Automatic annotation (TrEMBL):
<dbReference type="Pfam" id="PF00144">
    <property type="entry name" value="Beta-lactamase"/>
</dbReference>
<dbReference type="InterPro" id="IPR012338">
    <property type="entry name" value="Beta-lactam/transpept-like"/>
</dbReference>
<dbReference type="InterPro" id="IPR050789">
    <property type="entry name" value="Diverse_Enzym_Activities"/>
</dbReference>
<dbReference type="InterPro" id="IPR001466">
    <property type="entry name" value="Beta-lactam-related"/>
</dbReference>
<keyword id="KW-0732">Signal</keyword>
<feature type="domain" description="Beta-lactamase-related">
    <location>
        <begin position="72"/>
        <end position="334"/>
    </location>
</feature>
<protein>
    <submittedName>
        <fullName>Beta-lactamase family protein</fullName>
    </submittedName>
</protein>
<feature type="signal peptide">
    <location>
        <begin position="1"/>
        <end position="21"/>
    </location>
</feature>
Length: 357
């Protein structure tokens, strides 16, 4: 009897030692992947404390985002919102421009058209758009495949960003030169021609409606730009984190999406199918032919892939951390709005690391 009593006292003491003084429950993050419901604004959340993040760093991160002209910022872990912030009068209901981050939407839609049997990315573009869609000699134009448009290796002059026939002139044979440019927009024409419908209609039917995105394409000064709310941008980031799958449904073919976020050519290994890739041995940037050694964003996880647009529109996808990070806003440096990659990325990830590590 005495031994039983002593054992009971010991157990009760252990239980008491595991409780806080106010009996607050211990927060434990949910390791399962969550997908917000389609057709609803409901979205599960989790807390930085449950992830054992350093909450004392949140204010420094917010201050940085404000100083760099951000409009919105989100972090998802396992699909759940950990942070969602809006600045400068922007709200959760307002759309904002994706700029070149929207290239990844075009890549995804092209992949969907291929899995639906409408497009073969190894087929020459002229099979879909007809001959003489460029101002190049026919033999050179015929070298350009859909894959070349996805990988920025068309060989078309990248100094003229307005995509009209007179600007689509020869610089190099397709596949021999990487150059960041707006000719990727011809992928939208390929999808439209192969599906006999407007690109936006096909895009909405096969992508946005499947994952609950809002948004619209708007013709800008030099190319068509997608606009959406921050949460819709986050939905696409979550789809990408899961390899093109949404709550058990494979929206984008898994093998195609793997190709999207894998080096697509050896000239710039930090580029996939309109996605930027971190952690590679070297990289190139828009408007230059220089090759820089090292990782694209040294402060970011090496497995990060990113949709990057002018004025620092960003989707960062980090599989090793089950994380998606969204930033929308004006240019962090108004004197250098840039096309895609900028020093902003490394500075932001320094702040994020202080929070999550």
């Amino acid at each position: 009897m005495k031994q039983t009593y002593l054992l009971l006292v010991l157990v009760l003491g252990l239980v008491a030692s595991c409780s806080t003084s106010d009996d607050a429950p211990i927060e434990v993050p949910d390791p399962t992947m969550y997908f917000p419901p389609v057709g609803s604004n409901a979205w599960e959340t989790t807390t930085p404390s449950s992830l054992q993040w350093d909450e004392s760093q949140i204010d420094a991160l917010k201050d940085f985002l404000i100083r760099t002209n951000s409009k919105s910022f989100m972090i998802l872990v396992n699909g759940r919102i950990v942070m969602e912030e809006y600045f400068d009068g922007h709200t959760a209901q307002e759309p904002w421009e994706w700029n070149s981050a929207g290239k990844t939407l075009v890549s995804a839609t092209t992949g969907i058209a291929q899995q639906n049997g409408l497009v073969d990315i190894d087929t020459k573009v002229s099979d879909y758009l007809g001959e003489n869609w460029t101002s190049m000699h026919q033999e050179k134009e015929n070298l350009i495949t859909v894959r070349n448009l996805l990988t920025m290796t068309s060989g078309i002059d990248d100094t003229k960003q307005l995509v009209v026939k007179s600007n689509l002139t020869y610089v190099a044979d397709a596949g021999t030169r990487w150059a960041y440019g707006n000719v990727f927009q011809k992928l939208m024409d390929v999808v439209a021609a192969s599906s006999s419908t407007e690109f936006e209609t096909y895009f909405n039917t096969h992508l946005t409606s499947k994952i609950g995105m809002d948004g619209f394409w708007n013709e800008g000064a030099i190319f068509t730009i997608f606009h959406s709310t921050t949460r819709s941008m986050a939905r696409f980031g979550l789809l990408s984190l899961n390899g093109g799958s949404w709550d058990g449904e494979q929206i984008i073919d898994a093998s195609f999406f793997t190709e999207c976020v894998t080096p697509s050519q050896s000239i710039n290994p930090s580029y996939g199918y309109l996605w930027w890739l971190n952690g590679k041995s070297q990289f190139m940037v828009p408007s230059q032919q220089n090759v820089f050694p090292g990782s694209l964003v040294p402060n970011a996880p090496s497995d990060m892939v990113a949709a990057m647009g002018a004025k620092d529109q960003r989707i960062y996808v980090v599989p090793s951390k089950d994380m998606v990070v969204i930033r929308m806003g004006n240019a962090s440096d108004p004197d250098n709005p840039n096309f895609a990659v900028s020093g902003f990325d490394n500075a932001l990830w320094e702040k994020i690391n202080a929070l999550i590590n």
